[in-house]
Amino acid sequence: MTVPVSDIHKVGEVAQRTGVVRAYAIDVSNRGTPTSPSNTLYAHTDFTTNLTGNISGSPSVSSQTITTSLITGLTGGLWYRLEVSFTVSGNTEEAYIDIYCTDTETVS
Known about the structure:
Helix content: under 10%
Radius of gyration: 13 Å
Largest sheet: 4 strands, mixed
Order of helices and strands: EEEEEEEEEE
Shape: elongated
Number of helices: 0
CATH architecture: Sandwich
Distance between the termini: 18 Å
Structural class: mainly beta
């Protein structure tokens, strides 16, 4: 799934099934060429605790698309926020994706 970055910064709302490992692609072509991507996963109930155990690998850049780290081990019935930061022309940009962990493929 590729989602475009708009002015900010919420770039998508997606469902991820329990037990699925997934990375997300973020199209930043409206911002320029990104460098130095990083991502952090939080539970919606606590935006201060970084869920490092649910992230595998590092984000990467190909042209103007950022691919996030793999997201794994989410608990069904809970919302998560994946925050992505990157640099374009010396400026730090940020975006986020809200992820709902479910046993179906659609967000209701």
